[in-house]
Every structure is written in C-alpha cells, then in structure tokens.
Amino acid sequence: MIWATANSNLALVKYWGKAREADNQPAAPSLSVTLDGLTSLACVEERRTEAADRVAWYPPGPTGGLADFVARGRSELGIRHALDVVITSRFPVAAGLASSASAYAALTTALVAFAPEPVSAARIAALARRGSGSACRSLVAGFVEWRAGDEAGAVVQVAPPEHWPLTILVAVTSAEVKSVSSREGMRRTRATSPFYRSWLTAGAADFGVVREAVRLRDLPLLGPAIERNALRMHAAALGADPPLLYWEAATLSVIREVWGLRRSGVPAFFTIDAGPQVKVLCAPADADHVAQALAAVTGVSCVLRSRPGGAPRILSGPPDWAPDPVPRMPPVGGGGAGA
Ligand code: PMV
C-alpha cells in the first residue's frame, strides 16, 4: 500500500483557457502558491489477483474521470497489476479550493511509486495535468510557475515556501459542489466570451508583474496584480454564453471587506478561483485581525488558514487527519471502476 499526500495550490495568476484540451495544455502562463495543510491523500494498493482497477473518492463521488486517469496512467507508466485507489481530502471538495489539484497530484505521486522505471519530472507533470490542469503545479513546493507557449507544460519553482511566509486565508462562503466545472467553464469562455482574447493578453502581463513581486517579496506590488487578474478571469467568464457566475452574495461581501481593510491601512488582497470562496493574502502579523474581519462577514461559514507549503510526499502510513480507519474499497459490484 502506498500513501501519498499533496497540497492544493492557489493561482495568483490564473490559467483559464486551454491551447489543447486533450492534455490540458494552457493557453496562458500561471503562477501559484502551494497551500500548506490543504491536503489530499491517495491510498493505492496493487490487486495482484484481479484484472480491473477499483477507484473511489471518499466521501463518495462520481469516479468516471478518476477511473480513466488511473487506466491511462497505469498503461503509460508500465504498471502491470490492477490497482485499488481511494482518495480523500482534508477540505471541502469541488468548491473552488482546487481539491482536484491536490487529489491528482497525490494520485500521480502514488502511481509513479509503482512504476517499474524512473519517471522524469516532465512526464510526471504531464501525467498530473491530465487529471486537472492545475494539478501539475501541486507537484512543486512554494511559488510555482506553469509555462505556456514554446515551453508549454513546464512547471518550475519560482521560490521555495520559506522565501515568503505569507498567510493565505480562505473565506468559505459555500461548501456546495460548483455547478459548472472548470473544464466546462474554460471551454465555454473560450468558445463564446468576446473577452477571452483580451483576458489572455492581460493575464500574460499580470504574470510578469506577479513573478517579479514574488521575487522581491513585495506585497503592495503583488496584491493589486492578483486582484485584477482574478477579476479579469471572472469578467471573461461572465461574458460567456450562457454566463458563468461562480460567486455567492457573500463572495462580493468579502471583496468589499478586503477593500475596507485596505482603506483602514491593513494590506490584505484577494483572489478567487472558479468557485465562491475568497482567498486573502496578508502578512502573518496581520493574519489574526484579517481572519476575524472575514469571519464576521455575513455568509462566511469558516475561515481556513494556510501558508506556502511543500511538495507531495510518500508516507509510511496514513496521516493523523485521515479517516480512521482509512475507508477501504467497497465489495466488488458496489462501486467499481467507471461507476
Ligand atoms: O485545474 P483545473 O483544470 O480544474 O482549472 C483550475 C482553474 C482555476 O483554479 C480557476 C485557475 C488556476 O489557474 O488554478
């Protein structure tokens, strides 16, 4: 049995659009921070006497994409035996917290551990991003860029986690599964939004600013760039037909709260992915004050706290936060691959 963990990541510059959909090749470069503590666990075991894989999310969810991913991963990595796969996460899934990024990064790490031959970092990244584009960024610690264009696909560390001990707060406004997946949202934005092209151009410019701000640890330079990048991504999505609105009323209230904090002299800045949660960056010294202000906003159910985090790990047993016991696969017929 292999236990592999990976952290989620937060895009400071978003990837919202694909140059090639089959393998999630990005149309624009993105830059993320890997999130300590927002972790997924993949438990993978060989089924030496069986022919078919069995896959499951815990809590249970549709497994079609997961089953395909495992089947392709096995065949590419030359893993001969069928596998039992269970994936669980430490935080609300499918609500704009990039649980698919941490899940597929953890699963890829576990699959690679079963590969008979060494696998290059580039192949590992290519595999992970087929599950979820942003999963490839969760393979790397700290601040991470995912390139587009000529170097499409390369995932490179911009700075390690200790380079800049920012606090990242997540104001959770809804734990519901989002109604339109990122995959469908990107497809629709590209196909129908009149703002898609200008979003790509603007995003590439934000990328340069954010990379420099990270290098310099310059929050006043970083903050406005990440806010406008997120708002432009959502503007492009709002322009789709039918429109994509990922926000709840509380999402907007949190934005206003962050702007209010800034007016009162507290440097806090937000970003929002394809979901209703608002992620707020600030200096650790301001974190308690900012977290309290966010928690007081009507509609915010809780505030999670994170900081730049590490790369995936193979563990010698389940982590202490995993369900005890780690859920085993249901009996055959009760949720097999492709169910
Ligand atoms: O990883 P995907 O393909 O589900 O897309 C992630 C999209 C955003 O989170 C909105 C942006 C990003 O770069 O992570």
Describe this structure in words.
The chain has 339 residues and is of the alpha+beta class. The protein has eight helices and 13 strands. The chain has helices spanning 64-77, 99-114, 121-131, 182-192, 196-216, 219-238, 249-263, 287-295, and strands at 2-13, 18-20, 25-26, 30-47, 54-58, 82-89, 143-146, 155-159, 167-172, 268-271, 278-282, 302-306, 313-315. The chain is globular, with a radius of gyration of 19 Å. The two termini are 23 Å apart. 51% of the residues are buried. The structure holds (3R)-3-hydroxy-3-methyl-5-(phosphonooxy)pentanoic acid.
Proportion of residues in β-strands: 15-25%
Structural class: alpha+beta
* Tally of separate helices: 8
Note the gap between the termini: 23 Å
Number of separate strands? 13
* CA-based gyration radius: 19 Å
Shape: globular
H-E order: EEEEEHEHHEEEHHHHEEHEE
Q: Give the names of the bound compounds.
A: (3R)-3-hydroxy-3-methyl-5-(phosphonooxy)pentanoic acid
Largest sheet: 7 strands, mixed
Would you identify the regions where 5 or more consecutive residues have pLDDT less than 50?
Answer: 331-339
DSSP helix fraction = 25-40%
- The chain-level mean pLDDT equals 91
How would you sum up this structure in a few lines?
With 339 residues, the protein is of the alpha+beta class.
Relevant terms:
339 residues; alpha+beta; 7-stranded mixed beta sheet; 4-stranded antiparallel beta sheet; 8 helices; binds (3R)-3-hydroxy-3-methyl-5-(phosphonooxy)pentanoic acid
Set down the secondary structure blueprint.
Layout: E1 2-13, E2 18-20, E3 25-26, E4 30-47, E5 54-58, H1 64-77, E6 82-89, H2 99-114, H3 121-131, E7 143-146, E8 155-159, E9 167-172, H4 182-192, H5 196-216, H6 219-238, H7 249-263, E10 268-271, E11 278-282, H8 287-295, E12 302-306, E13 313-315
Parallel strand pairs: 5-6
Antiparallel strand pairs: 1-4, 1-13, 2-3, 4-6, 4-7, 7-8, 9-11, 9-12, 10-11
